Structure formats: C-alpha cells, structure tokens
Amino acid sequence: MRTNKKTTCNCNPFDFLTEEIIFTILDYLNDDPFAKKSFSLTCKAFYSIESHHRKTLKPLRAELLLRTLHRYPHIEHLDLTVCPRIEDRMLNVVSLACKDALCSINLSRSRFFTNIGLSSLVSSCFNLVEIDLSNGVELNDLAAAAIAEAKNLEKLWLARCKLITDLGIGCVAVGCRKLRLICLKWCLKISDLGVQLLALKCKEIRSLDLSYLQVIHVFYLSLGITDEGIAAVTFGCPDLEVINIAYNDKVTDASLISLSRCSRLRVLEIRGCPHVSSKGLSAIAVGCRQLMVLDIKKCFNINDTAMLSLAQFSQNLKQINLSYCSVTDVGLLALASVNRLQNITVLHLGGLTPNGLAAALLACRGITKVKLHASFKPLIPKSLLGYIEAHGCVFHWRDKAFQVEMDTKGWKLHFGKSAEAP
C-alpha cells in the first residue's frame, strides 16, 4: 500500500514580501510603539527591517544617543527635547551617524551646545530643512552664522535666543535663501534692520513670528520692530501667509495697511498692539480676503467699524479673539454673519450685553467653540445655551480678572534682568 508523506515547509511567508510592502505594513503601527517593538523582537530579520523602517526618533537619554543612532541608521526627524544636556560632541555624533538622511532636528529644550556643534551638524547633514533652537538663551551670532551654512533650510525657530542680533540674522538671511518659516519671538536684540535683511534675501518666507519685540533703548541703539520693518516684509515677501506681531508697542495702522498688500495672508496675530485701530484692520479686511485666523486681543482702539468691514470682506474667517477690544453688540452681531466662523473668544468686552451676546450666538450657525467670561453664564437662558450646544457648540467659561497691561516683570526676566532690579 502506498502512503503519501506530508512535507512540511519551513518557509517564512514574509520572505516573499518586498521590503516596500513590509514598510507599508509597519506604517499602520505608527500609533502603537509597543507593537513595533514586539515586531522587531520576533526574529533577526524583523529586527533589521524595523531598524531600517524607523524615520523618527525621540531618545530619552543623551548618553545612549550613539547606540540608538547606530540601531536606527535612517533617521530623518530627531527630537531631543527630553535630553536637556546636549554638548558639541553629541551633535558631532549625530552628524556622523545621520549624515544626509537627517531632515529635521529639535533642540528647543537642550542646552550646552555651541556654534561648533551646530557647524558640525549642518556641514554633514546638508539636507536639513527644519531646525528648532528655541530657548537657546546662550546662543549668539556665531551660532547664527553656523546655521547659515544650512543652504536647504526651510524652517527655523529661534524663539528666545536673546543674544542673537541683527548681524546673526543677516548671516541667516544670506545663507538660507530657501527659508519659508522663521520664528524670532522674544529675540530682544533684533531690530528693523534684521527684519529688512530677511525680507530682502528670503523671498520665499510664508510664516513669520516677530512677536514680543518691543522697542527698547540700549546705550545708543534702539532695538525692536516698528512700521518700517513690517513694510519691508510686505514688499520683500508678498506671498506671506502667516505673521505674528503681537505685543509690539510701536506697530501702528501703517503696518496693517502695508500688510493688506499680502493677499494670501491667512493668519494675523496683533494682540497687545495698542496703537492699531479699526482703520488698519479695515484695510486688512479689504486686502486680505483669505484671512482665516485673527487675534486682536488687547487692541483697545478696534471697534465696531472694523467688525463691519470683516463681516463684509472676510467671509473666510474661522477664528477670532476679540478680548479687551472696544466692540459692542453691534459689531458682534455683524461678525455673526460670517458663515464660516467657528471659534470665537469674547472676554472683557465693556460694550457687550447679555441680549446682544445671545442674539450673536443664535446668528452664528457654524460656531463650534465659544470662550466667554463666567459672568455671562447666569445671564443667558439655559434653554438657549442648551439649544446652541445641541448644534455642536462647546462653551468654555473663564473667570479671569481684567488685565490692562502685560506683566513688566516678565519683560525683565526675558531680557535677562533681575525682577527686583530698579
């Protein structure tokens, strides 16, 4: 009698899959790091596949950086925000390990590196397009000059790099012609000159943060941003889409009239600019028809006139902060006619009444989020609030005290002075 012997196959089904297909499978595990870990521990082949697939890395300990980068040789996005001590030698390790694969690095919570480490990084990682150096309070113009060697850089964050001056920004402007985003928030030694150099050399800028650059006088120098700097931006970067000039006390309506030439502007933040008024904002409404996000908190001279202009010309507006403005029931009702308006913050409006607020809320058909002062809650009928919530709106009630000016103590701390100093 003839018997059939069963032959067992020890082939791994994954052997028949291309690396591209396996990478696609691993892409579905991005939200579950433990699943990827389990995959890599299955066998040596999976271990190798997973190490080549990983593109993003956020190491927990700086001392293990060399070993980790050796394990993952194709990292494109390196996040070092949980490694507070990153020295120049560690940046040298990164440059040697990642080379041209690295596209972005986040050093916003790291310190102790200098221009030497940055120079090593950008010279080897010449495909870098994003660098975040926020909170680099010890970085100076030499560091900015090192960054200028990153010729392909598109996004640069320098928030609170308070030792960098116009000279350093000039180096960046000359070297990084492809910049599309730059953040100079709290860079207190930057003046109109630095902004003018950026506008002259970096024509591709789409997003610019110049907030908290109030004019200060140091010896014979006058530092800070004025209408001249903003005018240079509008002429040099006509395709600007996002700009933040909050808390600049020398910015006036002239700046807003200049910005109205940027027809692609989508986001405008001018909170804490006491010298802008409805005249400037009306010019923005007419010239910037694509405006979607507007923050005019503590712009005390903006009133109903500007709201009427926004209602007529800014039909793409989705989010607005009106806190502390001089807007009344009339202005808020006019604004309610903007069909795409979804998010509105209304705190400390002296001319606003419960009846006016209720009417405006009923008129805002697409509203999804409203931030109001808690004092209004008992003054609006519960049935009305329930009706609006049933249509998808979420109310956030705030019980904040009225604040007129920004904390001067905060300015002293950011400028590197003791809060108790005279």
TrEMBL record:
GO terms for biological process: SCF-dependent proteasomal ubiquitin-dependent protein catabolic process. GO terms for cellular component: SCF ubiquitin ligase complex. InterPro entries: F-box-like_dom_sf (IPR036047), Leu-rich_rpt (IPR001611), Leu-rich_rpt_Cys-con_subtyp (IPR006553), LRR_dom_sf (IPR032675). PANTHER family: F-BOX DOMAIN-CONTAINING PROTEIN (PTHR13318:SF37), PARTNER OF PAIRED, ISOFORM B-RELATED (PTHR13318). This is COI1 F-box domain-containing protein. It holds the Pfam family LRR_6. It comes from Populus trichocarpa (Western balsam poplar).
